[in-house]
Design brief:
- This protein is of the alpha/beta class and 537 residues long.
- The protein has four domains: 222 residues, HUPs (Rossmann fold, 3-Layer(aba) Sandwich), CATH 3.40.50; 46 residues; 51 residues, no CATH class; 110 residues, Orthogonal Bundle (Arc Repressor Mutant, subunit A).
- It is built from 23 helices and 13 strands.
- The strands form five sheets. Strands 1-2-3 form a three-stranded parallel beta sheet. Strands 5-6-7 form a three-stranded antiparallel beta sheet, with no helix packed on it.
- A hairpin with a 4-residue loop joins strand 6 and strand 7.
- The protein is elongated and about 105 Å long.
- It catalyses: tRNA(Lys) + L-lysine + ATP = L-lysyl-tRNA(Lys) + AMP + diphosphate.
- Belongs to the class-I aminoacyl-tRNA synthetase family.
- One of its GO terms (molecular function) is lysine-tRNA ligase activity.
- Keywords: Aminoacyl-tRNA synthetase, ATP-binding, Cytoplasm, Ligase, Nucleotide-binding, Protein biosynthesis.
Length: 537
């Protein structure tokens, strides 16, 4: 593998050319479920921040909840009754479930908890609190005074005509509470108030501190100046020619006298065949929901391994197992200090990990088998985990992995990944051939005489059946009264799955068999080797 510098380190090196003190910012509007497409922004920001810290920078990391933005429309997940709130700030709209302070907090709370579980801990700002505290007041004054200059920049960069009555500030109507239906009529810089007229028929004045907000294309560059942002990731929609970053660059420099932040433009995460995730269209899996299915370090790995400018295809079904396998192989190589692991892959692993993240020794795919063998019983799961050669000291992490697997089996697992251990020999055992029955009887004899057998040993034992002279091959030959039996390992694996599950296939045989107590396997294989429907009647 060719060693390559990781993209986060490339960004950090570029940023450090401009100085050692930096503020990495990310901002998402909590107007709907904050999904794993949004997660790309915060994980990308976190990776850049961690790389800056690793290189000795004086860096901080913030998240701004744009909770003073208006509700744009009645989204598919909302009842029609929310039509009356369209145009009002989402921090001033009732919570959909009634258990949070407001609409924005309903979506923000699970998102912030998800960040904690991902090991991401930015300082959190809420836009409504910043406006009310007067953090934007000077920027509002500047924008109001330089309204014409801002309008000229918007027209020159975006190519769109700015309406004659356009204003960079949106007052919040004292009567209807909307910020999308008002127009500025005048302002008083000394008194710090803005006069307005609203489409609802009301007019009046509002304070600059909390009485409204700057329009998005002005709010964003104002934020860079107010907070001193030097690095920020954002989606490709903002990076399009004439888009909000292009206009923001000029506004922050020419109007607010601040340098624009280093841009990290990222592509979308595509959800299976459904396309790009979007809260407004309903094509979404929330980060909180996904963390119930996937270990947090795997979700980080999904983002960290890919350059921001490349889109990510995410499918929580069968492809998820491939993703987890890939991460777990990387983890093993890193822990073993394997020389085949290059600098780039080592860095991918380092950035996928985070303080406080659980990391179970048990592979995800193996836990899928263990969970189903144990029928979800946690005490039984612990016994199997221990019997499989893993430590059970960190029960919390094992429990988290168990919950992940349980949810994945319920929501996303393909049919072939699911199985049900039959309490008695399945009727399908009647289809077993004589060689298959001889094999089951022979392996039962061998298992009975041995101590604990690992998954790898089970796997090798089954394959040894085809080797003339092996103990298992000799036993099969005796039972068939045939000195040179023709043994097909595929038929032997099939016999195992039929005798336990009543189906022709199942999970990886070694893991599968090592999940059972020896006594169960001996009894089941012996019963299956002599099974006939007549005996059962």
């Amino acid at each position: 593998m060719v060693d390559t510098i990781h993209w986060a380190d490339v960004i950090a090196e570029d940023v450090l050319k401009k100085g050692d003190k930096h503020l990495v910012a990310t901002g998402i509007t909590p107007s709907g479920h904050i999904h794993i497409g949004n997660m790309r922004e915060v994980v990308t920001a976190d990776a850049a921040y961690r790389s800056l810290i690793d290189k000795g920078a004086d860096a901080n990391f913030i998240y701004i909840a744009d909770n003073y933005d208006p509700l744009r429309k009645v989204y598919p997940f909302l009842p029609e009754s929310y039509a009356e709130y369209v145009g009002k700030p989402i921090s001033e709209i009732p919570c959909p479930c009634g258990n949070c302070a407001n609409y924005a907090e309903h979506f923000l709370k699970p998102f912030l908890e998800a960040l904690r579980r991902l090991g991401i801990n930015p300082q959190v700002y809420r836009a409504d609190e910043m406006y009310r505290a007067g953090r934007y007041t000077e920027a509002i004054k500047t924008a109001l005074v330089k309204r014409d200059a801002i309008a000229r920049i918007l027209e020159e960069v975006s190519g769109k005509t700015v309406a004659p009555d356009w204003n960079p500030f949106n007052p919040r109507c004292n009567q209807c509470g909307r910020i999308t239906t008002t127009k500025v009529t005048d302002f008083d810089l000394e008194a710090e108030i803005v006069g307005y007229v609203c489409a609802c028929g009301h007019s009046g004045t509002v304070p600059m501190a909390g009485g409204g907000k700057l329009t998005w294309r002005v709010d964003w560059p104002a934020r860079w100046a107010v907070l001193g942002v030097t690095v920020e990731p954002f989606g490709k929609d903002h990076a399009s020619k004439g888009g909000s970053y292009d206009t923001g660059k000029r506004i922050v420099k020419e109007i607010f006298g601040h340098e624009p932040p280093y841009p990290i433009v990222y592509e979308w995460i595509m959800l299976g065949k459904q396309g790009a995730m979007s809260s407004s269209t309903g094509v979404v899996i929330s980060i909180s929901d996904m963390l119930e299915v996937v270990p947090p370090e795997v979700l980080r790995y999904l983002i960290i391994r890919t350059k921001p400018e490349k889109h990510i295809q995410f499918d929580p079904g069968q492809p998820l197992l491939t993703l987890v396998d890939e991460y777990e192989r990387l983890r093993t190589l890193f822990r073993e200090n394997n020389p085949s692991l290059g600098v780039f892959q080592s860095r991918v692993y380092e950035l996928s990990r985070a303080t406080g993240i659980c990391q179970s020794e048990v592979p995800f795919k193996q836990m899928v088998t263990i969970y189903q063998v144990a029928r979800g019983d946690f005490d039984q799961i612990l016994k199997i985990v221990k019997r499989s050669g893993f430590s059970i000291e960190d029960k919390k992490c094992i429990k988290e992995l168990t919950k992940n697997v349980s949810k994945w089996l319920k929501l996303y697992a393909p049919p072939f990944a699911k199985f049900n251990v039959k309490e008695k020999v399945p009727v399908q055992a009647a289809t077993l051939s004589e060689p298959q029955k001889a094999f089951l009887s022979a392996i039962a004899d061998l298992i009975e005489t041995r101590g604990e057998i690992s998954g790898e040993e089970y796997h090798m034992l089954i394959y040894s059946a085809k080797d003339e002279g092996s103990e298992l091959n000799r036993l099969i030959a005796e039972k068939l009264n045939n000195p040179a039996p023709q043994v097909d390992p595929r038929e032997l694996f099939k016999a195992i799955y039929i005798s336990i599950l009543g189906q022709n296939s199942g999970p990886k045989a070694g893991w599968f068999l090592s999940s059972f107590e020896k006594e169960f396997l001996v009894e089941r294989f012996k019963e299956a080797s002599t099974y006939s429907p007549e005996k059962q009647e």
